[in-house]
User: Fold this.
Amino acid sequence: MRAGDTVIARSSRARVLSEPPYPAAFYIPFDDIDFSKLSGSEHSTHCPYKGDASYWSVQSAGEAGKNAMWAYEQPFDEMTEIRNHGAFYTSKVTVEATPD
Assistant:
């Protein structure tokens, strides 16, 4: 994942979560995300299936990077596999995925 030339995350351990009608989302382990390029946001949302989401913004992208990443830090029990993983809006960052 990158914003402009700034690499924010790189992982070979991403989890793909598909929730039609939404596009599939790559959930990247926190260990593979460069949090020094992000800043926490006050924004939050609630999903009836996953729980409460926290958001981070890409610092170098200004307004375009606002709330670019979300994560369910305490997801519901059925979604524990995405705990400590972040996902990015593809409209705010560039996602480059290469299949194994």
Residues 5 and 38 are 14 Å apart (CA to CA).
